[in-house]
Write a structure and sequence with these properties.
The protein is of the alpha/beta class and about 200 residues long. Helices cover about 50% and strands about 15% of the residues. A five-stranded parallel β-sheet has the order 5-4-1-6-7, with helices on both faces. Strands 2-3 form a two-stranded antiparallel ribbon. The protein starts with a strand and ends with a helix. GO terms for molecular function: hydrolase activity.
Length: about 200
């Protein structure tokens, strides 16, 4: 019996389907793809999701770099891009609630220090037994340490834990540590995985 489920947020429980980054870029005179290219460049993102810089400083750095590369419009684009908090997937949330009746459910997310305020805004802050944020742990997926730290904090061996993520790389890393891992593609597939795991 698996004693805990560790589940990712973005791409699993939170969707950004309504996010119109291309529209924002056009509105502010930025080249297509420039905002996400700058924001999610590993050398810029990793310090933010491992707690070395704040979310506010990360976003300010993105605005500054966009302005340097493309002129005016960067700061306004980042401000507009930063406002939404995404949407919770109702089907996945239903599965999370059902899982909490049979095992500990922990959120394990690569996130900035904005995670907890986003969870409150999404009304998800009471949906988990534990929240593990990479910004608080100081290490991010797919580093193996993030999984061992989370399992240890739960007082469980990796083999006692399930893990769900939309990143194949993160799923592979979790499996190497010993967690029973599932690559998320749909709520229906997740439901089948959870049923198989008991």
């Amino acid at each position: 019996m698996h004693e805990a489920l560790l589940i990712d947020l973005d791409g699993v429980l939170r969707s950004w389907a309504g996010q119109r980054t291309g529209v924002i870029e056009r509105r502010h005179g930025l080249p297509p793809g420039s905002l996400t290219a700058v924001a999610f460049a590993p050398e810029r993102l990793l310090p933010a999701v491992t707690g070395r810089v704040t979310d506010a400083d990360w976003r300010a750095g993105v605005a500054e770099e966009l302005t340097r590369r493309h002129g005016a419009g960067g700061a306004d684009a980042v401000r507009e891009w930063s406002a939404p908090v995404g949407e919770a997937d109702a089907d996945v949330l239903q599965l999370v609630r059902a899982q909490r009746r049979v095992r500990t459910v922990a959120l394990l997310s690569n996130a900035t220090d904005r995670l907890r305020s986003d969870l409150r805004a999404l009304s998800l802050d009471e949906e988990f037994d534990v929240v593990f944020s990479s910004a608080e742990l100081g290490v991010a997926k797919p580093e193996r340490a993030v999984f061992t730290l989370a399992c240890a904090a739960l007082g469980l061996a990796p083999e006692q834990c399930l893990f769900v993520d939309d990143s194949a790389e993160h799923v592979a890393a979790a499996a190497q540590v010993g967690l029973e891992a599932h690559h998320f593609r749909s709520a229906a597939e997740l439901s089948a995985f959870l049923a198989r795991c008991g």
